Amino acid sequence: MYCAVRYYSRSGNTKLIADEIARSLDIKAVSVDDPASKINKPVDVLFIGGALYAYGIDQHLKSYLKEIDAKNVKKAAVFSTSWISKHAIEVIKEELRQKGIQVADEVFYVRGKATDAQIREAHQFAKKML
Q: Which is deepest, 44, 73, 81, 115, by most CB within 10 Å?
């Protein structure tokens, strides 16, 4: 099974979760503002995450979601960290669904900075999505 982990993080909280998901799958998490983040070949599961900022998700993540080629993503699994709310999850899921990408019902969310226990839960989330 081929998976990819993509994220956008300003504070490092979402990166922390993305890195743990990637580590559990023995792959590398890549920020969406990195040119290497483009999905050029089909993935079975795309783990994609970001946070809610003042008025929505960051423009980097918005642009990335719009550019994803749906034919290269069999299923997406969404994760988020935020000090504000879980709303980023719904925004990300909706963008993916509009492209015709199947999105897992189960999501992973951490309010604020992840604890060690939540980081372990991110590992379990990744395994469940396979």
A: 81
